[in-house]
Amino acid sequence: MPTYTAPTKDMQFILHDVLKISQAKTPGYADLEPDFTGAILEEASKLTSEVLAPLNASGDKEGCRLENGVVYTPKGFKEAFEKVKEGGWPGLDMPEQYGGQNMPAVIGSAVGEMFSSANMAFTMYQGLTHGAASAILAHGTDAQKDLFLPKMVSCEWTGTMNLTEPHCGTDLGLMRTKAAPQADGSYKITGQKIFISSGEHDMADNIIHLVLAKIEGGPEGIKGVSLFIVPKVNVNEDGTLGARNGASVGSIEDKMGIHGNSTCVMNYDEATGYLLGEEHKGMRAMFTMMNEARLGVGMQGVAQAQVAYENALAYAHDRLQGRAVTGVEAPDKPADPLIVHPDIRRSLMDQKSFTEAARAFILWGATMIDAAHRSEDKDADGLVSLLTPVIKGFLTDVGYDMTVKAQQVYGGHGYIEEWGMSQFTRDARIAMIYEGANGVQALDLVGRKLAQDGGKHVMAFFDLVKSFCKDNAGQDAAFDKDFIEPLKAASKDLQAAGMFFMQNGMKNPNHALAGSNDFMHMFGHVCLGLMWGMMGKAANDALAAGTTDATFYETKLATGRYYMARQLPATALHLTRIQSGADTVMALDAANF
Amino acid sequence: MPTYTAPTKDMQFILHDVLKISQAKTPGYADLEPDFTGAILEEASKLTSEVLAPLNASGDKEGCRLENGVVYTPKGFKEAFEKVKEGGWPGLDMPEQYGGQNMPAVIGSAVGEMFSSANMAFTMYQGLTHGAASAILAHGTDAQKDLFLPKMVSCEWTGTMNLTEPHCGTDLGLMRTKAAPQADGSYKITGQKIFISSGEHDMADNIIHLVLAKIEGGPEGIKGVSLFIVPKVNVNEDGTLGARNGASVGSIEDKMGIHGNSTCVMNYDEATGYLLGEEHKGMRAMFTMMNEARLGVGMQGVAQAQVAYENALAYAHDRLQGRAVTGVEAPDKPADPLIVHPDIRRSLMDQKSFTEAARAFILWGATMIDAAHRSEDKDADGLVSLLTPVIKGFLTDVGYDMTVKAQQVYGGHGYIEEWGMSQFTRDARIAMIYEGANGVQALDLVGRKLAQDGGKHVMAFFDLVKSFCKDNAGQDAAFDKDFIEPLKAASKDLQAAGMFFMQNGMKNPNHALAGSNDFMHMFGHVCLGLMWGMMGKAANDALAAGTTDATFYETKLATGRYYMARQLPATALHLTRIQSGADTVMALDAANF
Questions:
Q1: pLDDT value at A506 more than 90
Q2: Terminus-to-terminus CA distance in chain B, angstroms?
Q3: Does CATH place domain A157-281 in 2.40.50.100?
Q4: With a cut of 0.85, is the ipTM above it?
Q5: pLDDT tens by residue, A6-52
Q6: How far apart are the first and last CA of chain A?
Q7: How confident is the model over A231-240, as a mean pLDDT?
Q8: Rounded distance between C-alpha atoms, residue B366 and residue B369, angstroms
Q9: Which of A311, B55, B450, B483 could be cross-linked to A2 through a Cys-Cys bond (beta carbons 3.0 to 4.6 Å apart)?
Q10: How close A584 comes to chain B (CA, Å)?
Q11: If you measure CA to CA, which chain A residue comes closest to B317?
Q12: Chain B: residue nearest A560 by CA?
C-alpha cells in the first residue's frame, strides 16, 4: 500500500532560500519566518500522512454510494473530515472576520499540495468549499457573507460549483438551466447540472451550491448567465436551517478515478436561489472561483506526481532485479535494487526534476496572488492571469505523465490495484479535464492571455527571465553553462513562437490556435527552467555561505542540471511544430478523416 | 457506448498499394490477391464489430470471478469464443497439418489488430494460446506436437505462459519454481507463478500451461531454467483427458484494466510437466513465444489507439460546442461540432497519423516474419529481431498516449466509465508493461540488438531508409520537401545517436543505457517516417495512374505530411537528450534522491 510523506524540507527551501518570503513586502509576509512556516507544515504533514493518506486507497476501492437520495462517503471520511475541521485547516487562508486564520495563499498552497497528495478525492470536498466561499467573498452582499461564510470557512457547510449541463461544458452559452425571479427578490432555479464534484454527501449539515442559470427574458447566450447561491437546505435569516430546498442528487457517476469524491448529477426543481453578484454577470463571478480552482487543479497534478514519485522511489530502492551494468552493487543480495539501472534513474529524475520545479512554480505563483490581493499589485495580478492556464494545463498534463512513469517503475505490480499506483494515474487523469479541459487552457493562453493589456504581461514575463539571466550570469562558468544558457535558449524559443503567432495569426487565427497546446507546454518548460535557475542560484548561495547541509543543496543543483539538459530542450520541438503552422493540421475536410 | 469498425480499406491499401504482397516472392504470398484478402478482412470485420466489440464494455464492467477454484469469464464470452472457434480464426496462420489454414503472418496480423481493437481482454485468451502453440511447434517433439497442437490450434484447449514469480519478473534467474525429474521422464513442477493471463477460465476443456522452472541440481541463475508443458488436466496418450493435474488458480488479480481476462496467481503443486525443448534451455524456447508475444503486444497498442480514435472522431463530429474561430460553420445548429477547433484537429491528426503508420509498420514487419519463416531469409529474420523491441516499446508507449488523447476529446464524459473511453486507456496501459516492460525493451534494443551480428541489422535498416530516399527523390519537389527531406533528417539524427553510443558507451555503458528510451522512441519515429514515405509514394503513384478514389489517396498524403511536419521532428529532441549523456542521469547517490 502506498504511503505519503510531505516534502516539507523542499517546501521550506522554496519558501525561504528561493522566495525569501519573510523578507517580501507583501502584508502578512513578515511573520512567515522559517520556524513559523515550518511548524505549520509539520502539523499539516502529520495530519496528511497519518489521517488522510491511509484513507486514499480504501476510499478508491469503496467509492461513494447513493441510497434514497443520500450519498454515503467511504468509511473513515467523516471522522477524518472532523479532524480537518478541528485543526482549522479549511480556513487557513480565509479572513479572520469569518473565522479563518488569514494566512497568505503561499502557505495555503503548500498545505494544499499535501492534502491533495495524501487524498485527492477527500480534499476536493473542502477545495470546492474554498472556491465557493471565495466567490461569495468577492461578489456577495454583506448579508450573504455574514450568513454563509462563517459556516463555509469552517467547512461546517461545504460548497459546490455547478456549471456543466449534459449538452454543454466549455460552451456555457448553450446553458438551459433557468432562474425565475420571485417577488421577494429570490429566484426559482430549474434545470439539470452534471459532473458536480462533492454535490451531495454525508459530511456536512448543509451544502451551498453555486449555480449558473439564465434569468428568464435575459440576453441570449453567455451574456445572459447569472450566478446563484442555492443551499441544499434553506437557511433562515438567523443562520438556522429551514426546510429542504428543491436541490437533489439524481445519480452519482461511475468514474475512472477520484472514487472517494461524489460526482453528482444535480437536479434543481424550482429550488430557491439568491443572485450572487450582478444579473447576467454570472461568468465574471464564477471566474473568481474558476481561476482559484484552476490553480488548485494545477497543484493536483503536481501533488499526484509527488506521491506517485515517492512510492516509485521506495520501490526502486526495495525491489531487487538484475545487476548494474557497471558492476554488482549489492553483492550481499541476490540482485541489485532497481535504482541502479540507468533507465529507472531517467524515469525517477524526470519525476523529481519536474515535481520540485512545479512546486516552486506554484508557490512562486502564490506569492504573486498574495501581492495582487494584499498589495493590489496590478502587475502581479496580470502575471497570475497569464500564468493560470500554464499552471493548470501544463502541470496537469505533465503531472499525469509522471504518475504513469511512477506506475511503470513497478512493472506488473503497477497494474494491480492492490499496489495503489494505478489510483494515482486514475485520479490525476481528471485534472487534465475539469475546470476547463487543457485544450481550453491552451486556447485561453494563446487566444486571450497573450494579447491581454496589449501583451503587457507576457512582456513582463520575458523581462523577468531576462533579468534573472542578466543578474546571475558571469559569476560562475558552470552555472552559466548548466543553467543560464539553457534558460536563455528556451526563452528565445518561446519568444520566437510568440513572434510566429503575431506574424501569422492575424492572417489566419488557426496558425496560432494549431500551436496553442505546444505553446502552453513550452511556456511551462520555460517557467520550470526559470524555477530551476532560481533554485540553482539559491543552492549555490547556500553552498557559498557555508552550510552544514551541503548534500541537500548539491542535490538541488544536480536535479536542476538534469532538467536543463533533458527536459528544457523540449521547447525546440514545440517551436518546430508551431512554426509548421496550421496547414497540415487543418488540411483535411472534416468528412475525410 | 463505443463502437468499432475495422479499418479494412486502410489495411487493403497497406497490403496491396504499399507492400504489394501478392507480387512478393515469399511462399504463399502469390495467393494474396486483393479480392482474397479483402474477403478475409470483411469476414473478420463483421465478427469483430458484431460479436466481440459489443462485449468489450460489459466484460470490463463485470470482470472475471473466481469461485471454488473455477474462474467464470464475463457474460457472453463463452458464446463468442464458440463463434470464433467455429470460424477457424485461432488457426488462421497455423499449419494445416494441425488443423490451421496456413495463412501468412501478414494476414494474421491484420486480423489480429481487429480482434484486439474490438475486445483486447477477450482476444488474449486466443492470443496466449497462439503463442504457446508456436513454442510447441518450434521446440516440441513430434509426439508433443501431435498430442497438443490440434486442440490448441482450434482453441478447444487454450494456452498460457508462466514466467513471473512474486519476487522476479525481468530477472528470471531469481526464479524459485522447481522441477523434479521422475522415473518416467516427466517432472514434478512445484512453485508459484503470478500475472498469468488466461490462467484459468471456463471457455475450454483444458489449459496447456507453459511453465519456466529450474530442474533440481541444474546450473544457477538463468542458465538453469527449463520450459515445461503442464496441462491443467492430464492428457492421455490417445489425447483423451485424464485426471486433474496439480495446477490450480490461487486468486485472480484486481487490475486497472483488461478485466475480461483472468490474470491468475497459479500454484503448481507437484504438477506433472513435460520438458519442452532442451534441459536448461528454457529461455530459448520461451523466447519463441515471447518474441511473438512482443509483436502482438505492440499491435495491442495500435489496436487500442485505433478504436479510441474512431470513437473520438465520432464524438468530435457529434458534439456541438463553441464556434470555429474563422467563422460559424454550422449556422443551422446552436454550435459547431468539436472538429472545427484547431486543437481538436491537432489531437485527431496526432492519432490518425500515428495509427495508420503504426499499422503499416506492423504489417511490414509481418512480411519480414513471413520471409524469415517461409523463405529462411536470414536478413529479414535479423531485421525483425532488431525491430521487435521498437514495435513493442514504441508502439505501446505512443499507442497509450493516443488513447489518452482520444479520451481527452470527450472532455468530462471521457472520465465517466459509461462512455467507454476510460477503458481504452486502462486496457492499453498494460501493453507498456507486460512481455517485458518498455524500459527492458529499450535495454534490449540498445544493449543487445544494436550490436547483434556486428551491427549488421541496424546497418541494413539504415540502408533501407537510404535506398528509399534515393529511389524516390528528385521526381516531385513537393514529395521531396514534405517526405524525403524530413525522413533523411530524422534518419541522420538516429545515426548520430548510434554514433554517440559507439563513441561513449565503450567508456561507460551508462552513456548508452541512459539514452535507451530516447533511442527506442527515435527509432520508432524513423520507422513510422519510413512508412509514411512508402505510403506517400504509393498514394502518389495511385494518383498519377489515375484513380477513381482520389480523395482517399490525397487524404493519405495530407496525413503523412502532418506526421512528417509535426511528429517526426521529435528525433531531434531525443538526440539532444541522448547526447547529454549519463552524467546528469546518474549524478545522484541513490540515497540522495
A1: no
A2: 45
A3: no
A4: yes
A5: 999 999 999 999 999 999 999 999 999 999 999 999 999 999 999 99
A6: 45
A7: 97
A8: 5
A9: A311
A10: 5
A11: A590
A12: B584
Residue with cell 547517490: B589
pLDDT of A287 above 90: no
The long-range contacts involving B480-486, CB below 8 angstroms and separated by at least 24 positions, are B482/B536, B482/B560, B482/B561, B482/B564, B482/B565, B483/B532, B483/B533, B483/B536, B483/B537, B483/B560, B483/B561, B483/B564, B484/B533, B486/B529, B486/B564, B486/B565, B486/B568, B486/B569
Helices (H), B140-193: 142-153
Tens of pLDDT, residues A67-119:
999 999 999 999 999 999 999 999 999 999 999 999 999 999 999 999 999 99
B428 → chain A, closest CA residue: A415
Helix (H) or strand (E) holding B180: strand B178-181
Residue B285: CB atoms within 10 Å: 24
Interchain contact B13–A (C-beta under 8 A) = no
Cell representation of residue B134? 508456436
Q: Is the pLDDT of residue A237 over 90?
A: yes
Asked if A352 has any chain B CB less than 8 Å from its own CB, the reply is: yes
The radius of gyration of chain A's CA atoms, rounded to the nearest angstrom, is 24
- The H-assigned helical ranges of A319-341 are none
Question: What value does the mean pLDDT take over residues A529-542?
Answer: 98
For chain B, the structural domain boundaries read 285-443, 453-582
> With an 8 Å Cβ cutoff, are B570 and A573 in contact?
yes
Which CATH architecture describes the domain B285-443?
Up-down Bundle (1.20)
CB count within 10 Å of CB B182 equals 12
Q: What is the 3-state secondary structure (H, E, C) of B213-224?
A: EEECCCCCHHHH
The DSSP H or E segment spanning B193 is strand B187-197
Q: Which of B220, B136, B127, B134 is nearest to B176 (CA)?
A: B220
Flag whether residue A579 sits within 8 Å of chain B, measured between CB atoms: no
Residues ≥6 apart with Cβ < 8 Å to A182 = A188, A272
pLDDT in tens, A247-268: 999 999 999 999 999 999 999 9
At residue B291, the pLDDT reads: 87
DSSP strands (E only) in A236-334: 241-244, 247-252, 263-276
Whether the per-residue pLDDT at A337 is higher than 90: the answer is yes
Q: What is the mean pLDDT of residues A353-374?
A: 97
Q: Among all chains, which residue has been given the C-alpha cell 421577494?
A: A184
Contacts of A287 (CB under 8 A, 6+ apart): none
Provide the percentage of residues in chain A whose pLDDT is more than 90: 97
Q: What is A8-139's CATH number?
A: 1.10.540.10
Report helix, strand or coil for A200.
coil
Average pLDDT, chain A: 97
Query: 182-201 in A: which are within 8 Å (CB) of B?
Result: 194-195
Check CB contact under 8 Å for A566 and B558: no
In this chain, the answer to whether the domains covering A8-139 and A157-281 adopt an identical fold is: no
User: Residue A194: enclosing H or E segment and its boundaries?
Assistant: strand A187-197
Q: Which residues of chain B register pLDDT less than 50?
A: none
